Each structure stands twice: as C-alpha cells, then as structure tokens.
TrEMBL record:
The chain crosses the membrane at residues 111-132. Keywords: ATP-binding, Glycoprotein, Kinase, Membrane, Nucleotide-binding, Serine/threonine-protein kinase, Signal, Transferase, Transmembrane, Transmembrane helix. Residues 180-468 form the Protein kinase domain. This is Receptor kinase. It is a single-pass type I membrane protein. GO terms for cellular component: membrane. Its main location: membrane. Belongs to the protein kinase superfamily. It comes from Solanum tuberosum (Potato). One of its GO terms (molecular function) is protein serine/threonine kinase activity. It comes from the Eukaryota.
C-alpha cells in the first residue's frame, strides 16, 4: 500500500472464530496489517476478491489528521496506531494542526475559485444560449436601428434638395396635438392607423401613423419623395410629415368622403346605386387623369404599383385623388422597363407581368392593368372574381362583360336610367377591357385611356378577349417593352 513496503503480502483471517492471521507472523516492520471482510462461504481468497468486491475504509480522526499532515497511518502487530513520517524531525501535534488548518484554508480558497469559475461558465453558456435562441429578435432590432440611421440621412438629404418646396416637418408632440391625442380614428391597415386632425389654422387633415417596425423605412421615404414631386387635382396633397426616432407619420389633406372602396361594394337595394353613373364616370375619368399625370406630367415618371379602390380618396364633391404611394417607384421618362426585386401590389389588381416576367417587362403599363381591374369593379359594384354568384358564367366578371359586348347585348348593369348613362357605362367597360390585356404592349397608355373616356362611343374598337389572350414569344420580349 505504501512505497516503503517492499515484498508486500496479503494477510487474512479465515473466519470470525479464528484469532490468528495467516502469514502475519513474518509481517515486515514497515508494513501495516490490513483487515479485510471475508465472505461467509469458504473458498480461495483470490476468487473472493474479484471486480465485484468493493473495498471501502473510513479514516479515524487520528489517521485523518496524520494523513492530511503528510504522514502515514500504520498499526503494529498489536494493532496499535502510529503516524509515520519520512521527515527526520518529528512533527508536534500543534504543528500538525497548523499545517492541517493551512491546507484546509488553501482547499477552501481553491473550492471557491473552482465554484466561481464553474458558475461563470454556466452563466456564459446560458447567455450564449439565450442570444442564439433570440438572435432573430436581436438581428431585427439591430437592422432597425441601422436602417433608422440610414433613413434619417435620406430624409435630411431630401429636405436639403427640396429646400422651401419640401413639405412641413412636424415633431411627434405636434402630431399628438394635431390629432387630439389620436381620438378620432378614420381607419387602419397593415401600415398603421389613420386619424382625423386639425391644424392651427383650422384646416382639417388626415394623419397616417406608421407602425414602428414597418420594413426598413423605404415605404415612408417613397411616399414623402413621390407626393412631394406632384401637384395635380387628382393626386392627394401631402401637408407634412413626422420623422422622429422610430415614430413616423404622414399628414394629408382631409378627404370628407373617405375611400372609393366603401361606395362600390356595399349592399344595394331596389336597384339603386350609392353613386350614380355620372359620378362613377367622373371618378373613373379623374383617376385616369391622375395616373396620366404621374406617368407623363412629372419631371420624373412615378409608377404607383398599388392602384385599387382603397387607395382612391374622394373629396366633398366626389373628386377622386390617388393616394398611398408607399409602393411607388420613380424612374426617368425614357425608361421603358423598371427593375423590381419582388412583386408589388394587391392580389386582384397586380398585372400578370409582375408575377410572370416572361409576359413582358414591368412598366407604367402595370398601373394601367390595375386601373382597368378597379374600374370594372366600379362598373359591376362587386369583386371581379366572386364565387358566390348565382350563375357560373358570372364568376369572372370581366369575361362575362366581354361576352355581352361581343354578342352586342345589353350589359344589364344596375342603375342605368337613360341612354347617356348607358353610353358612359359602355365606354368605361370597353376602356377597362383594353387595360387588362394580358400582354403589356397590347394595353393603352393612360393618355389613350383618357382619350377613350372623353371620346365618342362609336369611335371605340372592340378589344381582344383578355381572358383568353396569351402573347407569343415574338410579340413580347422578356426584357424590353415599347411604350404606347
């Protein structure tokens, strides 16, 4: 058991009733006698002491003090305890206690250090695990603050470039004052909420408060920059904006009649429309003029990419104004096709080439398609695709209308009272069917649409069936489309 015990042998007791220890008579003086428990069954000791046998021992207080003091616990033949040390000079009990105390103190310090290091490691691992699990949230906020700084730089550059022509800039305290702490809510959408407000001079406004973490601020910059370039009776006016930290808001002129959407889808009774055909015709013509201005009247061409009834506002005289330029894209007038990273717009109004690029390049003709789909919904007072109709032939409304025109039948539209209203309705239908042609090159420009609406019904040609038309590869090039 100890290095100094050379030629060590095992001495054992055969049974409890035998006092002698076999082989103990020649035990070396530098070796200690070890007592081993023996199984009750007789047998060879080597067979009894196998890997299944666990030998344990407990140190006495004296042996413990000796061992931790650097000595060895021994007994002689009479089983008398003695503490053997290699040092020549024996160690006193006092010195042994001091040494033991010092060793215990060092052990305690080591234990504290090891425990502290372990806890620090566990804490670090827990923190890393939390960061890993929440990395998307951290990344989101990091990107938000980075983009926020970029957006601030864009806004400052915008204000510098526009000088005195830039819209008013409000702080968030002004926005709360203008809206009366957001008391009168006009509507809401994916972008945020719209509130009614009043300026100091008594002018009423509509304040669109954008969601705090909406995208990377591109929509906001687009809207401020796009509308600031416009001045037209059929384009909503931007009074001002707020860009303060993560708080963003747009202040528009107030439109008392709200959006066109609520006037064309609500239930009608006794064959009476909410808006008569003269007003519907006036609205369709006004929207066409507004889009014509965006495409041709500005120094920089503006493509809206989200024309739909919800984004057409009506003033007290039902004069339409194109609004919500969050998805707009500006380009030079000579550009035929614009590049886009992904689809823009709302399902039901998106032009086919935005989804399927082999139909043609994305251009201002994409707005023309959206306009045509919207006007057809104005005409029918319903969604263009409606599976709840009585007859299957009416599920896709544009196709049903085209069939009636092709057969020279009455359109059977609600609310037509005289020949003048019938002519307005037929011009709106024919112009719209031209607008929703599958191939962009087959659609008219908005200037041509205005001309069609203002002209005589007899001068309008019957369009191809937009529902069945599919352009050939020779008709449409996937990268370039000539503008009409």
């Amino acid at each position: 058991m100890y290095n100094g015990c050379e030629g060590f042998n095992i001495y054992y007791k055969l049974s409890e009733d035998v006092d002698e220890y076999i082989g103990a008579d020649n035990l070396p003086t530098n070796c200690s006698l070890i007592r081993l428990p023996i199984h009750s069954s007789r047998g060879d000791l080597i067979n009894l002491l196998g890997p299944e046998i666990l030998v344990e021992w407990k140190l006495s207080d004296e042996c413990g003090e000796c061992h931790y003091g650097g000595g060895r616990c021994q007994t002689d033949k009479t089983n008398k305890f003695s503490c053997h040390k290699d040092a020549k000079t024996p160690t006193s009990s006092t010195d042994q206690r001091k040494e033991t105390t010092g060793r215990n103190g060092r052990n305690m310090v080591e234990l504290i250090l090891v425990t502290g290091a372990s806890l620090s490691t566990v804490g670090l691992l827990a923190l890393l695990l939390f960061c890993f699990r929440e990395k998307k949230l951290w990344y989101k906020y990091l990107r938000f603050w980075e983009s926020n700084a970029e957006d601030h730089q864009k806004v400052e550059e915008f204000l510098k470039n526009y000088g005195s022509y830039a819209p008013n800039r409000y702080n968030y305290t002004d926005i709360k004052r203008i809206t009366g702490r957001f008391r009168r809510k006009l509507g809401q959408g994916g972008f945020g909420n719209v509130y009614r407000g009043s300026l100091g001079n008594g002018s009423e406004v509509a304040v669109k408060v954008l969601n705090e973490l909406k995208g990377n601020g591109e929509d906001f910059i687009n809207e401020v920059a796009s509308i600031s370039r416009t001045s037209h009776v059929n384009i909503v006016s931007l009074v001002g904006f707020c860009f303060e930290g993560h708080k963003r808001a747009l202040v528009y002129e107030f439109m008392p009649n709200g959006s066109l959407e609520k006037f064309i889808y609500e239930e009608r009774s006794n064959g009476v429309r909410q808006l008569g055909w003269p007003i519907l015709y006036k609205i369709a013509l006004g929207i066409a003029r507004g889009l014509e201005y965006l495409h041709r009247g500005c120094n920089t061409r503006i493509l809206h990419f989200d024309i739909k009834p919800h984004n057409i506002l009506l003033d007290e005289d039902f004069c339409p104004k194109v609004s919500d330029f969050g998805l707009a894209k500006m380009c030079m007038k000579q550009e035929s096709v614009v590049s886009m990273l992904g689809p823009r717009g709302t399902i039901g109004y998106i032009a086919p080439e935005i989804v399927c690029r082999n139909l043609g390049g994305v251009s201002h003709k994409s707005d023309v398609y959206s306009y045509g789909m919207m006007v057809l919904e104005m005409v029918g007072g319903r969604k263009n695709v409606d599976v709840g109709v009585d007859r299957t032939s009416e599920i896709y409304f544009p196709h049903w209308l085209y069939q009636r025109l092709e057969l020279d039948e009455e359109l059977q539209l609600v609310g037509i009272m005289n020949e003048e209203e019938n002519e307005c309705a037929r011009k709106m239908v024919i112009a719209s069917l031209w607008c929703i042609q599958t191939g962009p090159s087959n659609r008219p420009s908005m200037s041509k649409v205005v001309e069609m609406l203002e002209g005589k019904l007899d001068s309008l040609q019957m369009p191809p069936n937009p529902y069945l038309f599919s352009p050939s590869n020779s008709e449409v090039d996937s990268s370039v489309v000539e503008l009409a």
